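This part of the workshop introduces the protein records we will be handling. To make this concrete, we reproduce a full record directly below:
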Amino acid sequence: MTHRIVTLPGDGIGPEIMAPALEMLGALGEFEFEEHAFGGASIDAHGTALTDETLAACRDADAVLLAAVGGPRWDTTDPHAPRPEQGLLGLRKGLGLYANLRPVKPLPALYDASPLKRERIEGTDLLVVRELTGGIYFGEKTRTADAASDVCAYTTVEIERIARTAFKAARAKVTSVDKANVLETSRLWREVVTGVHAREFPHVQLEHVLVDNAAMQLVAAPRHFDAILTENMFGDILSDEAAMITGSIGLLPSASLGGDGPGLFEPVHGSAPDIAGTGAANPLAIFLSAAMMLRHGLDLPAEAASVESAVERALEGGLRTPDLGGTDGTARATQAVLDNL
């Protein structure tokens, strides 16, 4: 069976890391790739970050692999101007991708690359489960000459389904993060998560932590966490904070999953326009995102494990890209992983 994958190279270093990812996947098996413009590249070509044609192609695919979107040339404060990030929000909404999974597991070969002490991060293996299609990012927005508002809203159904995702993914414990001492949406969040736990997952430990405390604990005791469950904006912020435990955001993959349709798999890092075209981009995060695609999107766990193992062995063998303090560029990093595949 040939799996059909829509590829969205996007902007900045996106095309430079997508090509190695497709080369790596080609070494693993038979895949059919269909490329579409997305983000800033799509704004330049079509005037919108996500065309109806691209969304339709993504819906028909078995999985969607995205490299990176955005860049200063499309930055604007004009609420009516198209922005690359709108494509990402539109794709999540259009595919019903309500759950974002970000694993954070520092590799022993890179313990010393982390800004945190080795003894603090050793053994960390956590998963951030972020609600992706609700909350303040999708709420009603208003803007006048001297005021603006963003509405944060959640329904019971939205909270229940993301809670189930976290409880199923957890090994032993879910840490539900909210701001229930201040926000009404957080009070609903806490009540609903508690209910789902009691009814469906009593064997999994549940703790509730306020978001400011969670931010501190991620730095002070990251080993404490197993699965972190949280709403859209808190998850956006905490997952980037957790990324630095590994030493570089250039290493982290993510998966966005929903109902019956295809999942979206992308590196956590941005489009890094400052290094685009220099050959210095780190492709490891898109390799690991492709591994998440193989596991969660295409049900190919053995192939996923082989990619993850190849990345780990390449790093153990001394591979260091500039973001990890070395001089190995995209081509060298790609070859090191292929050699270990």
Q: What stands out?
A: Residues 115-246 form a domain with the Isopropylmalate Dehydrogenase fold (CATH 3.40.718.10). The chain has twelve helices and twelve strands.
